[in-house]
Amino acid sequence: SKEIILHPGESFEREIDVSQLYDLKPGIAYRIAGYFWPDYRNQQFFIRSSNMLALRLKPRPTSAARPGADYEQYANDATGAVISPAQTVYLFLSAEMRSNWPDYFKFLDLERFIASYDHFAARFAKARQTEKNAILDDFRDYLATRPADRLAHFKIIANDKQTELDPTQSPIHRTKVKVEALRTDRGYNTRYVYTYTLELDRGSEQPIWRIIQVEAHLKSSGGAQ
User: Fold this and answer.
1) Is residue 96 within 8 Å of residue 90, measured between CB atoms?
2) Prediction pTM value
3) pLDDT tens digits, residue range 10-37?
4) Cα distance between residue 72 and residue 119, in whole Å
5) Mean pLDDT across the chain, nearest whole number?
6) Reduced to 3 states, what is the DSSP secondary structure of residue 184?
7) How far is it, in rounded angstroms, from Cα 208 to Cα 80?
8) What residues pair up with 221 in beta bridges, in sequence order?
9) DSSP code for 107
């Protein structure tokens, strides 16, 4: 147990893996209510949530299902990519949460993504070709070792598909995926809306979406949760 003090406008959140506590079955409807005991030693007095959440679990897709089936509304099947743009961003951010940096970087076009970070973009743009690899190494280390702003939660909220033309009139498949994310830093919480721009890379054996740019907008910030 730990004492938690909340000031006006602040909130407290805690994530629990309910599958470790209950044997939840797909296809069955569940209703969830919250109970709060101000003093856990006295079980007689508690506060019950005024609302109730209803949910129904869906069976896990079979192995024969196409990767990214859960994101069907975001998929661009015409490109031939196995993983949809939305699932690419989902796997990318999931890798950051697990500090799985090999998976994190494989979805990035690092030489273009660096332009989204002002303190690296200017150095990279002015550097000689022989110096650029060292700057990219510094940028890679920065992304993987940032001590602050831990990614605590995210959800994909929108995806816009568009096709652009390059100067030779060859089609370039490009899309934007919008994400709402919560980051924490020593108890201080900040919510962002990220817009990721992805471009289809046909140079690999299997076409893959790569993230080439990100725009970040502050949604809200507050104290400890």
Assistant:
1) no
2) 0.61
3) 777 777 777 788 888 877 778 888 888 8
4) 37
5) 79
6) strand
7) 9
8) 190
9) T
